[in-house]
Each structure stands twice: as structure tokens, then as C-alpha cells.
Design a protein that fits this description.
The chain has about 300 residues and is of the alpha+beta class. About 45% of the residues lie in helices and about 20% in strands. The C terminus is likely disordered. This is ADA regulatory protein.
Length: about 300
């Protein structure tokens, strides 16, 4: 069974319409088959929607994607006062539907992409058909911003498209962060994936093996051993590589000084940062910037 949607948002999605729906009577979703995506973000009560002959019971705080070309219809009534956010959109590019096994492969590939070249290296979103996000409040905030902008009389109409895209990215990021692949057979392997994600999220902070061990309630030596077995890196080396990866992005794409980059990455000793960078890149940060940095210039 295909449970996930995959597409690229290298270009913003096409936002068509959206808002908040509140029932004034007992309500059952109409039967229809449309050619655009629908996102339902349930706020209260319970929704009962069948899609492609599968029945979904959508609880408060849960999200349901309705896919173009698939018949959907309510199969039970919801009470007066039922409310949810909704939006209609299309992707600018092709999309595909993934099985759980295919999703495992996509997430594993993303998580193993240790050293992205730059911020634009991944434009993929992975969206579950039915999900309960851990941080649904963030999604509610984005919805409110989107609907506020959509009804404003802006001259530039792309703002709603970009905000809707941000909403899908937020759902995708929460999905990937909390996703547990079937291929991770042991508790230790699953823990290592969680640690890798935690390091990625906190890469701009001062982090240590001891801090990670305390966060995940593991003995430092044991944690280092299972991490090395799973990744080929010890934890400290993995942290260093992640920080150097971010440093390279900043050197290529910003004017921030080498000292400023070191501080941004939680490495307050500039000389230590320079030694670390040279260890992994065989050149200094300044040499790297001269080799790869390109500043757009206006001709006078």
C-alpha cells in the first residue's frame, strides 16, 4: 500500500485556496474526485474520510492528504462545531506515491547524505498520507500566516505559494526527523539514527559526546562504540564533519568572517576551528573561500 507522497519543491507549489472550515450541523464529507491535492489539518472532533477504498479516522491534531484522481467520501458524520484547516494545491513538478519500503529507502538515503554541497542540495519533500505531527503547533502557525497573506491584497501574489511550500516542508521535516525505518532492526540502530538527527539539528551549538550521552541516557563509551559500528565514525568525528560541512556552506554563500563562522558553529576558538578545517579539507577556510566563493558584481 502506498502511504507517502514524494515531490520536489525546488520551485514553490501552486497554492489555489485554503481556510478554516467549521460545521454548523452534523456533517459528512461530500463524495468527489478532483484533480488537485487537498490537505486537511484537523483541529477538533473526529473526521471520517474514505480515500481510494481505504478508511481514515482523522483525530484532532492529525493531517490527511487527499490525492488527485482518487475518489474520497465521508463514511461517518462529524458533530456540530467540527473544525479543520484546509488547502488546495498542486506541485509544479511530478509527484510519486511511495510504499513503506520505498519510504525507508528515501529516508535512509537522506540521513546518509552527511555532507551536502550547499543549502540547495535537497528539494525533496516526503509527506505521509495520514499523520499526527509531533509539533502540530508549528503547522497551525504556518496555516494562520498563509491564510492571512492569501486574503491580503498584495501586489506580489507569490507570497502565498511560498508560505504554502514552507508548510509542506515543515510537515516533511517533522516526518523525516521522527521516521523509524523498518530496516533498523535493533534498538541500537534506531538510537544511532536519532543521534545523527539530533546532531544535525544542534550543529550550530557547542555539543559534546557527554552531552549526547546525557540526552539519550546512555553510557558515553557504549554510545561511542555502537555509533562507530553503525556509521564508521566515532561521535566526535561525526560532529566535526557536520560542523565543517556547515562551515563550507557559510564560506561559499556568505560574507561572514572566519571568526564569525567559528562562533556560529559553537567553536569559540578561531585557531582551533582553522586547524580542524584544514584537517578535513587540506586547506584553510580562507583558501577554501577564495577557491569556491563567487560574489555577484554589478557592472557600472
Amino acid at each position: 500500500m502506498k502511504e507517502y507522497i514524494k515531490s520536489s519543491v525546488g520551485q514553490p507549489i501552486n497554492f489555489h485556496s485554503g481556510g478554516q472550515f467549521i460545521t454548523t450541523e452534523n456533517w459528512t464529507h461530500m463524495k468527489r474526485n478532483i484533480d488537485i491535492f487537498v490537505v486537511i489539518i484537523n483541529l477538533n472532533e473526529t473526521l471520517y474520510i474514505e480515500q481510494d477504498e481505504k478508511r481514515y479516522t482523522v483525530l484532532p491534531g492529525e493531517i490527511l492528504f487527499l490525492v488527485p484522481g482518487q475518489l474520497h467520501v465521508g463514511f461517518n458524520p462529524s458533530p456540530i462545531g467540527t473544525s479543520y484547516y484546509w488547502l488546495h494545491f498542486t506541485f509544479p513538478n511530478n509527484y510519486s506515491l511511495l510504499t513503506r519500503k520505498m519510504m525507508d529507502s528515501e529516508v535512509t538515503s537522506m540521513r546518509s547524505n552527511l555532507l551536502p554541497i550547499n543549502n540547495h542540495s535537497c528539494s525533496t519533500v516526503l509527506l505521509p498520507i495520514h499523520t499526527k505531527p509531533r509539533e502540530v503547533e508549528r503547522i497551525h502557525i504556518l496555516c494562520k500566516q498563509l491564510f492571512d497573506v492569501a486574503k491580503a491584497n498584495y501586489y506580489n501574489t507569490y507570497n502565498a505559494h511560498y508560505l504554502a511550500t514552507s508548510l509542506l516542508i515543515e510537515i516533511s521535516e517533522q516526518t523525516i526527523y521522527h521516521y523509524k525505518t523498518v530496516s533498523l532492526d535493533t534498538a541500537a540502530e534506531r538510537k544511532v539514527e536519532m543521534i545523527k538527527e539530533w546532531i544535525r539539528i544542534h550543529v550550530f551549538k557547542k555539543i559534546s559526546v557527554t552531552m549526547i550521552a546525557e540526552e539519550f541516557q546512555y553510557n558515553s563509551d557504549y554510545l561511542s562504540r555502537i555509533f562507530k559500528q553503525a556509521t564508521g565514525y566515532n561521535i566526535q568525528e561525526y560532529i566535526h564533519r557536520m560542523k565543517i560541512s556547515k562551515a563550507k556552506e557559510l564560506l561559499m554563500n556568505t560574507n561572514v568572517t572566519v571568526k564569525g563562522i567559528a562562533i556560529t558553529l559553537g567553536l569559540n576558538d578561531e585557531k582551533y576551528f582553522m586547524r580542524l578545517f584544514k584537517k578535513y579539507e587540506q586547506m584553510t577556510p580562507t583558501e577554501f573561500r577564495k577557491a569556491y566563493f563567487r560574489m555577484p558584481m554589478n557592472n557600472v
